[in-house]
Design goal:
Blueprint lengths: L1 H37 L8 H22 L8 H4 L3 H37 L10 H5 L1 H18 L8 H4 L1
Protein name: TRAP transporter small permease
Organism: Pseudoalteromonas undina
C-alpha cells in the first residue's frame, strides 16, 4: 500500500504542476486573444481553439485532482448523522459508483471516442491537431478517477464526519 501511495503522490505532484502550467497558458492565450482583437488590427486565428482545448483538459484533469483532494461538492448531511460503520459503507458505495462511472463513461467511452476520431482522421480546423489527441484526456482522467476511488475505497475513514471537520 505504501508503494501505491507513493505512486499517487507522484501523480498528484505532476498533475498539480501540469494544471498550473495549463492555467497559465490559458490566461496568456486569452489575454493575447483580447489584445489582438481589440488593440491590434488583425485578430489572432488560433487562440480560440487553443483556449477551448486547454479548457477541456483543465476541466477533466482538474476534476480528477479535485476528487483526489476531496474538494468536490458533497451532500454530507445524511452521512454526518450515521454511525461510523454506516458512514464508511456509504463512503465505499460512493467510491464504487465513481469507479463504475470512470470505467464505463470516461475510460471505455473515451477510448471509443479516441478510436473513432483517430480512425476517421478528424483534425481541428485551425491548428490541424488530431482530435484523438484532444479527446485522449477522457480515458486519462477516467484512469485517475479510478485510481483515486480505489485508494479511497480501501482507505475509507473509520470515523463519522464531525461538525468541526466540515467547518
Amino acid at each position: 500500500m505504501k508503494q501505491f501511495e507513493h505512486v499517487l503522490h507522484t501523480i498528484d505532484s505532476f498533475l498539480r504542476i501540469l494544471l498550473a502550467l495549463m492555467m497559465a497558458l490559458l490566461v496568456i492565450d486569452v489575454t493575447w486573444q483580447v489584445l489582438t482583437r481589440f488593440v491590434l488590427p488583425q485578430p489572432s486565428s488560433f487562440t480560440e481553439e487553443v483556449a477551448r482545448f486547454l479548457l477541456i483538459w483543465i476541466s477533466l484533469l482538474g476534476g480528477a485532482y479535485a476528487y483526489r483532494e476531496q474538494s468536490h461538492l458533497g451532500f454530507d448531511l445524511i452521512v454526518r448523522n450515521l454511525s461510523a460503520a454506516k458512514a464508511k459503507v456509504v463512503f465505499q458505495v460512493c467510491c464504487l459508483l465513481v469507479a463504475i462511472f470512470a470505467i464505463t463513461v470516461l475510460i471505455i467511452g473515451g477510448l471509443n471516442l479516441v478510436h473513432i476520431t483517430w480512425t476517421l482522421g478528424q483534425h481541428s480546423a485551425v491548428l490541424n491537431l488530431p482530435m484523438a489527441g484532444v479527446y485522449s484526456v477522457l480515458p486519462l482522467s477516467g484512469l485517475l478517477f479510478l485510481l483515486y476511488s480505489t485508494y479511497f475505497f480501501f482507505n475509507a475513514p473509520s470515523h463519522s464526519v464531525e461538525q468541526e471537520d466540515i467547518i
